[in-house]
Each structure stands twice: as structure tokens, then as C-alpha cells.
Protein: aaa-type atpase family protein
Amino acid sequence: MSASRLSVAAVAAAAAAVSTCQNRAYADSSFRFNPFSSSSSQKQKQQQEADQTANQKSDAKPEPEEPKGAGFDPEALERGAKALREINSSPHAKQVFDVMRKQEQSRLAEVAAEKTHYEVIQAQIDIDRQRKLHEEQRNLIQQQAQAKAQMLRYEDELARKRMQTDHEAQKRHNVELVKMQEESSIRKEQARRTTEEQIQAQQRQTEKERAEIERETIRVKAMAEAEGRAHEAKLTEEHNRRMLVERINGEREKWLAAINTTFSHIEGGVRTLLTDRNKLTMTIGGATALAAGIYTTREGSRVLWGYINRILGQPSLIRESSMSRLPFSRVISQAKNNAKKYSTAAGSATPSESKNGFTNIILHPSLQKRIEHLARATANTKTHQAPFRNMMFYGPPGTGKTMVAREIARKSGLDYAMMTGGDVAPLGTQAVTKIHEIFDWAKKSNKGLLLFIDEADAFLSERNSTHMSEAQRSALNALLFRTGDQSRDTVLVLATNRPGDLDSAVTDRIDEVIEFPLPGEEERFKLLNLYLSNYLSNEGDSGSGKGSLFKKKTQKITIKDISGDVIREAAKKTEGFSGREIAKLMASVQAAVYGRPDCVLDSQLFREVVDYKVVEHHQRLKLAAEGGHPV
Ligand SMILES: Nc1ncnc2c1ncn2[C@@H]1O[C@H](COP(=O)(O)OP(=O)(O)OP(=O)(O)O)[C@@H](O)[C@H]1O
Structure:
């Protein structure tokens, strides 16, 4: 029993020694497997502790202390060798070695198992590592993908921003381009306009120069003609004087001879007469009758010559003139005026005339005041021998321009002559001569002449206008020439519906410009009243009524219920009517009254005529608007 115990202890010691050596060898050779080496060293430690415990138990006597070397412990080898020796000497050596071999095998198996376990762990670690690596790679790829996507997004955003910026820049550029183009076109337009204006200014300048030259030519021509005429007149006068002297001398001699003869005859005759009383009486009576006949004939022929001179001397362009009246008609009118003056002085003047300076002319109060003032100024100008002021009347047709011109002439004591611009064009080349004739003729007036040119725009329009003929232009230049200086014998009054068409040189000669508008409601009311009394009142029905259309009236007109309100209503309806239209309306009323057997004018008939005249007026306006003509 003790032997076996001993052998077991020896084997254990040997095994421990061997294993220690092996462990050292392991520990030296395999640093790689740290966990295993640590566990084997622990085991070795445990083994050593177990061996020590077994040795202590088996030996129970203290082993002398071996000096401990630095790296190698010979004690174990010694103990191993001792144990081997004991084993060798033991009969159970074989069994011991078997056990040892089995232990070794089982230990190796353990080590292999541990190794396998470790390998499994290692593989697991590898797998984990690989998985981690893979995950990391995947994360990395994901991150890269994210970064790339972000990058792409960023690039895309950048590209979009760039595109937007480019687009805005392009837009700005386009706007600038358009602006530049606009500016350039404006500049071009301005340049074109400037050029056109320059060309027009040049043309105007050329026209002006041409007109100036023409005027100068006409002036020089006129002066030359005047000089020629003066020279001719001088020569004629000289010749006439010589002839007269010769004739007087001849006559004197003839008369002397005749006187001598006569005296000798007279002497004989006187002697006979003194002796015969009857013959003396007859001779005295015959001489007186002869003297009276001679005087009457001379005065009569002088008056007749003056009249013929006026009639034949009146230029053909003058349509109406106060200078062409028969001398006896002037005497009659003078007598009439005197009679009027007398009756006025006696307090029988018509209210309209005493109050209103212009008989039968209805104007707006302010216009009337101005006209009266002008008439007074013209009269005073004439009295003081100052230069006359020219006038222009403009406004729609039939507003009283001609009437006023005539009245101004009458009031200011001037002669009056009227011509129409439309008559000038048909005269062609004769027009210039005729214009000069008028102004020469105007000089014959002792009182001064108011020359009224109606439709002045027909021949005094802008000289640059294309539809103006050369003859018309010359006529206009002639008028401009004759009115260039302020005149002391002619007042020029132009009337036109289109003042804007007049040549600037013509308007330059005008001192007073007066507008004649269409009558307002108050004026229409007065006009209706005026023409009602002129055409329909029975005053002066003896045939001399100033307003009667027919001098002889066989039946009296009866006016019924035509109150102020009825006339006021008509004045309201006739808005846009001229004075002439209102006069015509009342003439129509008169015709309508004469159309009735009883010659009664009542408010119904009056209203009917007014209504159809208003309709007619609007139709005329419409037609004129369609035709593009002024009414
Ligand atoms: N203000 C007015 N007062 C009274 N009657 C007027 C007035 N205006 C016009 N008339 C009447 O109209 C007629 C024409 O007037 P007048 O010839 O003076 O007009 P006008 O302006 O010269 O016209 P036109 O431009 O056509 O020559 C006159 O005879 C008169 O009957």
C-alpha cells in the first residue's frame, strides 16, 4: 500500500516536473495564445500547489531549501529525476508510465480541446471582426453614398442657383439691352425730329425769304410804276402847259381880234339898242336865261360825273359799298337821319335804339360793350387823324359779323365796302391788279373806308398751304404790301370761320381780335323777340315796316297767346342755333301764319314750327358731321 502510494507520488512529481518543463517550453514557444498560456500557468500553479501539498503529505519532512536561480529551477528537475528513479525502481513503473501517458494524452486532448475552443473563439472573433468590418464598410459605404448624395444635392442646388443667377443676369442683360434699344430708338426719333424741324425751319426761312423777295419785288415794281406814272404825268403836264400857253396865246390873239370886231359890232348894236327900247328889253332877258342855263348845265353835269365816277370807279371785287349810293339817295338818307335825330330829340326814339347803340343786333352784353367801345375808338381815331386799327371777327357763320362791321362803319362815320375772299381765286392773274384797285379806290373816300373782307380765309390763308395757287399767293402778297404800314384812310376788318387758317403775316396786321360765339339762351330769347316783332308784328304795316318780308300786306297777322314763357321755351329748345338760323326760324313762322286763312299765330303753331326747325337743325349737324364739314 505504501509502495503504491509512493509510486503514485513519484509519478505525480515526475509528471509535475515534466509538465513544468513542458509548460515552460510552451510558455517560451507560444506567446501567441495568451489566454491559454495564462490558464495553463494557472493550472501549472495549481498543479505545483497540488504537488507541493502531495510532497508535503508524502514526505512529511522538510526538504532542504534550494537556492533559487534567476531563470531556471533545478529543484523540479531534480525532484523529477528522483521520482523517475523511484518509478524505475518501482514494480509499478509500467503502470505509472501508462498513467502518465494517459494523463499526458488527456492533457493533450484537453489542450487540443482548448485549442479548438480557442480556435472557435478566434473564429468567432474573426467572424465578429469581419462582421464589424463589414458593418463598418457598409456604414462607410452608406456614409459615402449619403455624402455623395448630399454632394450631388449640393452640386445640383449649386447648379440650380448658378442657373438662376445666370438666368437673372441674362434677364438683367436683356432688360438693359431692351432699354438700350429703346434709348437708341428714342435718340434716333429725336434726331429725326430735329432734322425734320431743321428742314421745316429751313423751308419756312426759304418761304419767308421768297415772300420777302416777292414783297420787295412788288414794292419796287409799284414804286417804279408810280415813279413812271409820276414822270409821265410830269411830262404830260409839261406838254399840256406848253400847249395851253400856245393855245392861250392863239386864243388871246383870236379873242383880241374877235373883241375888236365884237366891240365894233357892239358899238353899232348899242347904238341901235339905245335908239330901240323893245330890242333892249329882249336882249337883257335872253342874256339872263343863257347864264342860268349854262350854270344849271354845269352843276348838273358835275353831279352826274361824280356819280358816274363813283359807279364806274368802284372795283369789281367790291360787292356792297356805301360809296356807290346815288347822290339823291344819300340826300334822302341824310334827310331821314335828320328826321330821326329830330324825333329823338322830341322823345320819340325807339327804346332799343336809345339804349342799345346797335339797332337790331343782339349780342352778349360784354361783346356788345366791346363793339361799342371799338366803334367809338374808330370814330375818335378818325377825328384825331390817327392811324386806324385793323380787326378780325371770327366765329360760326350767321352770328352777326357782317352786321357788326356795317354798324361800326355807320357809327364811326366811315364809308363801308364789303368784299368776299371767295371772289379772289377765280380772278386768276387779275387778282393782284384788283386788290391794288380796291386800295386806290379806298383813297377816294373823304371819310375813310372800312373794308370788310368776308370769308377772309378763302384767300388769306397760310401761304405754305399746298392748295394755294400762285395767283392767290400773289393777291395775298399784294394785300400784305398795301397793309404793311398803319393806314389813316382804311380800316381792315376780316371775318372768318377758321381763324387758324390765316397766314401769320395777316394776323400780324390785326390789332383787335373778336370772337362771335353762338348766342346763349338769353340772347336767343332776345333774338326771337326781335324777329317776332320784325316779321310778325303789325306795326308799320303800311308797307314801310323795316322787318316785313313783303312790303305789301293785305291781311293783318293776329298773335294769340304767345307769352314770354312760350318764347323762353323756344329759346331753350334752340340751343346751338345761330342768329341767322333764328331769323330764318321766325321767317318760317311768318310763312306758316300766312299759310293759314285767318293769319293767326298761336302758341301751338309757333311750337310746331320751332320743333321741326330744331329737328332740321340736328339733321343738318348730323349730315355735316358725316361729311366732315363744319355747319
Ligand atoms: N347777333 C345778331 N343779331 C341779330 N341778327 C343776327 C345776329 N346774328 C345774325 N343775325 C341774322 O343773321 C343774318 C346774317 O348775319 P351776318 O351776315 O352778320 O352773319 P355773319 O357772321 O357775317 O355770317 P357769315 O359768316 O356767314 O358771313 C343777319 O342778316 C341777321 O338776320
Notes: The beta strands are 320-321, 391-394, 415-420, 449-454, 490-496, 512-515, 558-559, 600-601. Residues 276-311 form one domain.
